[in-house]
Amino acid sequence: MTVTLADVAARAQVSPATVSRVLNGNYPVAASTRERVLRAVDELDYVLNGPASALAAATSDLVGILVNDIADPFFGIMASAIQAEIGGPGGRAGGERLAVVCNTGGSPERELTYLTLLQRQRAAAVVLTGGAVEDQPHAAAVAAKLRKLTEAGTRVVLCGRPPAPDTRAVALTFDNRGGGRQLTEHLIGLGHRRLGYIAGPEERTTTRHRLEGHRAALAAAGIEEDPRWTVHGRYDRRSGYEATLELLRRDPSLTAVVAANDSVALGACAALRESGLRIPEDVSVAGFDDLPFSIDAVPSLTTVRLPLAEAGARAGRIAMGREEPPPGEIATVRGELMVRGSSGVPRR
Amino acid sequence: MTVTLADVAARAQVSPATVSRVLNGNYPVAASTRERVLRAVDELDYVLNGPASALAAATSDLVGILVNDIADPFFGIMASAIQAEIGGPGGRAGGERLAVVCNTGGSPERELTYLTLLQRQRAAAVVLTGGAVEDQPHAAAVAAKLRKLTEAGTRVVLCGRPPAPDTRAVALTFDNRGGGRQLTEHLIGLGHRRLGYIAGPEERTTTRHRLEGHRAALAAAGIEEDPRWTVHGRYDRRSGYEATLELLRRDPSLTAVVAANDSVALGACAALRESGLRIPEDVSVAGFDDLPFSIDAVPSLTTVRLPLAEAGARAGRIAMGREEPPPGEIATVRGELMVRGSSGVPRR
DNA sequence: AGCCGCACAGCAAGCGCTTTCTACGCAAGA
DNA sequence: TCTTGCGTAGAAAGCGCTTGCTGTGCGGCT
What we know:
Chains A, B: GO terms for molecular function: DNA-binding transcription factor activity; transcription cis-regulatory region binding. Two copies of one chain form a homodimer. Chain A has helices at about 5-10, 15-25, 30-45, 50-55, 75-85, 110-120, 135-150, 175-190, 205-220, 235-250, 260-275, 310-320, and strands at about 60-65, 100-105, 125-130, 155-160, 170-175, 195-200, 230, 255-260, 285, 305, 330-335, 335-340. The first copy, chain A, is an alpha/beta fold. At the A-B interface, helix 4, helix 5, strand 2, helix 6 and helix 11 of A face helix 4, helix 5, strand 2, helix 6 and helix 11 of B. Chain A binds a DNA duplex through helix 2 and helix 4.
């Protein structure tokens, strides 16, 4: 027995149409009438029925944000920035949108299901964050979905994700390749010649690009890479710990370990320390992302800072139509090398 | 020009009613008919109109998760666990719900606005995580809102938040007081008598409870507390850094620093180190929560582990009606003291 | 004085789905 | 053979809102 528009109308002695117009503020209503309506709304504690409104108006105030792992600050920071711009509540009037964060857990199926769910809700916009899975059929399915969404008027923005061709989706891509290369060049510059690499999960764009950057740096320096120097794992600390032990087992003469991201790097540090190796005297370590805790590691982590919050904010604004998309609908966001205590001259 | 139920019905040569029933699977439909309908759905790429469906059925598949700060893993971990149970996609059939994470940024207004938005969407359930703001009028407003929600059939669960009386909301409360007490007792047991405390923002239940636990331990040990030993800040690293410098300035003879949470503790460690103090030889440090990175600090952090993921999962299940609420609608979740390298015998 | 146009307000037709109630056909029981 | 009843499908009445179009009253114009 909830209160409806009609109840409010009756109480304010006006027609439902008028109440609707007062609430939406998109049609002239005499001040006195508005006043009366607003009072009735208040007295009856009326709350608009979202679905009904969305149905009639054929629009919705939902904005979806897809992330791979909400427990990872990498995504949390971006999501936070995006949501702040979406305005959730607090944004300028008229833009009261419900920004919803959907956690795909990195699973292609869930990603697709969430997209369908958002499509079903006729979401106003969708922001996809983080690397994409490189499985061909899945990529095609996602692309098809995105195309459908844009066709239906949903704005689609990719944040920290490679462009999706033929989808009209705006892409803010992180320069993972460039960042990876800078990082490894830095280590090579210090004199390292035997570098281990702990990569993320295979079949992920982020993983591949960072690794490619690393290899490009090696190649440019004329260093021939030993296949034993690369190990794949997940993007978490645990994985870094285990992978490092594995690397050490394979080749104890490594003088540097480059990790897929900061969490992995932290795990690597732990493993090295437990193996009795000092950082950076015995082995240098480098991460990626520059998450807040990275500066607190001991020694603090050499890494590549990605402007997560800035990129997220921009993606949010574009999704809201408050900022022009970049020319060509694609922009590359660069990382910045942060040289800190965990990298140093190799032991000899 | 989107495809509607009627289009599918026409194509499958059945009535819209039948299509609806096939899609919802809540009514007997002959296998051959179902087959035909499903094929039509597929061929037309039909996607159900969420708002329309929600309107007609007077139910929704939205579940809201309110968090104070999505960029903080404390909330990220809980949100992730909750969402996994909500099923989002991937949950068992029939329960395909859209779990949405709403970031309040700790602001009472936004919290309220989000609740209204969820109420407007006729959310199936709402989970509020983390400490509440202790502002009286605001607390009353939230309580009123929660009451409205439960009355409207929305299940409300509080996770890591104190019970809200008279709201029929289920509460899984963290024993912040007990955890705080254990932690400080541990330090006292090591011989500390001069302990600094970096508290969270005032007017927050979590802040107050942890501090009360700390003070209870001091009182029980007959230690008289110096008002200079407590500093308030935010729940982030930066705040811990600054507060520690302040504490050191006020009383350089402190032998231990207890922080409101792990991030703050990390900031404290950084400040101590920069001040030339060794941990734990010169000053012991303790955190709270036991977030993943805490074990990687050097030395690793003594803290109180809160079963964030477990509590979140349980909250999620209760919200979905898949688990019985605890007796009395209230359960207390205890923390576990994790003694690690950052705490030791005080310098003399 | 007569007419026009403007500023508001109401009517009513949907929006696309769910669900109750009714209709139909057929097999089984009387 | 006639009635029951079950298994299925359809007709149609909304769900609560938005919005194009249709009034209505009044001030200003000629």
